[in-house]
Amino acid sequence: MDDFELDEASVEEEAESGSHRTRFLILGVVVALALGYMIYAAFPGNALYFLTVSEFAGKQTAQDGRIVRVSGKLVEGSFLREGNSITSSFRLQDEGGGLAGAQLEAAYVGVLPDLFFNPHSEVILQGSYGPDQVFQADSILVKCPSKYQSLQAELDKAS
User: Fold this and answer.
1) What Rg do the C-alpha atoms of the chain give, in angstroms?
2) pLDDT tens digit string along 54-94?
3) Is the pTM of the predicted complex or chain greater than 0.85?
4) End-to-end CA distance of the chain, in Å?
5) Which of 22, 53, 63, 115 is most buried, most CB within 10 Å of its CB?
6) Are strands 68-74 and 50-52 parallel, antiparallel or unpaired?
7) Which helix (H) or strand (E) holds 55?
8) CA-based nearest residue to 73, from 128, 125, 112, 108
9) Residue 78 CB partners (closer than 8 Å, separation 6+)
10) Contacts for 113 with CB less than 8 Å, ≥ 6 apart
11) Reduced to 3 states, what is the DSSP secondary structure of residue 136?
């Protein structure tokens, strides 16, 4: 009878040991999936690259209402604000005028970043191109001009 009890005890220990391994494996898979999802969810906006104004103008698939980012410089004298509101319209073009002087008509509702009007700043719009041929910007990012660019501009003015 003792042999039978020992065999039964060893079988129970092996079953318990296998059960712990299975639980640990399942827990590891769940943790890995959760971590992978958190990484994926944290970076969807950053996976969206931007087009220049010329690239956007030449790419019909980007003009079908999908969310895209477009980069360019503010066209001097193109900024208009409706009265005392936060609704504004303006045009962007590639640095140096771009190919064939392509310009993008854009509209934005909201407070503009501080460096928006700096002639050395690069403006990146995120939004969609509407059927009215106007890019409706949901957000605006202004890349700070390089300190060397502004220094060079000051030197050019002084000359």
Assistant:
1) 29
2) 888 888 777 788 888 999 998 888 889 888 888 999 999 98
3) no
4) 107
5) 53
6) parallel
7) helix 53-58
8) 125
9) 90, 91, 103
10) 140, 141, 142
11) strand
